[in-house]
Amino acid sequence: GGSASVSMVRQVKLDKESELRVEVPNDTPLRLRLLSGTAEIFGAELPPEIWLNFPPRLKFAVFTWYGATIEMDGTTELDYTADETPMVGYVNVHAILEGRRNRAKASSSNDSDSSQGPRVIVVGPTDSGKSTLSRMLLSWAAKQGWKPTFVDLDIGQGSITIPGCIAATPIEMPIDPVEGIPLDMPLVYFFGHTTPSNNVDLYKVLVKELARMLERQFSGNSESRAAGMVINTMGWIEGVGYELLLHAIDTFNANVVLVLGQEKLWSMLRDVLKNKPNVDVVKLQKSGGVVSRNAKVRQKTRSYRIREYFYGLANDLSPHSNIANFSDLFVYRIGGGPQAPRSALPIGAEPAADPTRLVPVSINRDLLHVVLAISFAKEPDEIISSNVAGFIYITDIDIQRKKITYLAPAAGELPSKYLIVGTLTWLET
Ligand code: ATP
């Protein structure tokens, strides 16, 4: 007693198999802890009694299998409990995947087919909960000691690195509800645009490169081979988007296709994949908790992801401002300008612009506020097939003195002088 301040601490009791859905406000963080019972956030168990800090804008659910009491400190944009969730269906999928992992592990590692664990691909329209389901499957597997590989093909709202990239990383521990995917050493390919329609051929080339690289890593690592992978995809499922899903299923040799929230997509994929007896196409219910995001929110989220890359989630990183001479850096663009659609050309004619042609870019003011990728390539002709080391952000171009100022995660020389530019920009706020 005696305190003048109004306590904003409150408790929520959750019955078994129910969840507390929370939206953190845009400007204030939220503290939350598990008081009693057991609960998890998207597959990662909450530690008992320890306060967790959730940053602004985060949307999540605390789910309990057996019942729990949660304590919250702070205001929320929205919070409510729900006892209808698709979690039982999701955990049943996990159990089947576990069986396949165990079988793969037990088989002789010489046989490449039987020693391969499940290759799961999660597909569905935008805002169907694909990233969230991927995260749960990975966290549940990691909790049981597996190190599954997470592959994120979503160049718009991916969760491994900045937008405009496809990436993969092993998941060795349940994914932290606040920190997200650890950024240790992901394998990243830079597409440079936030929608594949800017260069569909390039997108396919990069998906193939990523798959080839993972295949190579798996061949020397029976542990990660048995753990398998979980592949998250884009929400674009019509026309070219659908074609890209089929391309991804094929390229990664996916053997479990999880379809979220759309009957039509499930039936289309089931029909087209029915002559592949070892591929299971499974329909799963979308969670009522998934929060829809409009174009503006998506744009904002992309911008925050880039900010997070340089400054950290809690402003805990200090990026370095560096200056280089124009002559020190070699900037390339992949694909020569906008392509004429094939349908607009005379029969038999090829589009003039080769979508995977490497085009040198001269440094000028157009590069201001652009985010560039640093290629691991040793020669320019390796750029398309190479993954990237990281990113820089151009903050100033001095034409007279031929100097370029950029923000990089660290001080010192860049790992390579070959940079890739796309259409990815950022306005530091
Ligand atoms: P995209 O269209 O970008 O591919 P998606 O299908 O991958 O989206 P998610 O990113 O998984 O969808 O979910 C969208 C948002 O909803 C995320 O902020 C996620 O944290 C939130 N969310 C998902 N499930 C729940 C839930 N059960 N309760 C509360 N929030 C949730």
Explain this structure to me?
α1 crosses α2 and α3 runs parallel beside α5. With 429 residues, the chain is of the alpha+beta class. The N terminus is likely disordered. Helices cover 23% and strands 28% of the residues. The site of adenosine-5'-triphosphate has 18 residues, from β7 and α2.
List keywords for this structure.
429 residues, alpha+beta, binds adenosine-5'-triphosphate, 23% helix, single chain, disordered N terminus
Please write out the topology.
Layout: E1 9-14, E2 18-23, E3 30-37, E4 40-41, E5 44-45, E6 52-54, E7 59-64, E8 68-73, E9 78-82, H1 87-106, E10 119-123, H2 130-143, E11 149-152, E12 165-170, E13 187-190, H3 200-219, H4 222-227, E14 229-232, H5 240-251, E15 256-260, H6 263-272, E16 280-284, H7 295-311, E17 320-325, E18 330-334, E19 358-361, E20 371-375, E21 388-398, E22 403-408, E23 418-421
Parallel strand pairs: 10-14, 10-15, 11-14, 15-16, 18-23
Antiparallel strand pairs: 1-8, 2-7, 2-9, 3-6, 3-8, 4-5, 4-7, 11-12, 12-13, 17-22, 18-19, 20-21, 20-23, 21-22
Bound molecules: adenosine-5'-triphosphate.
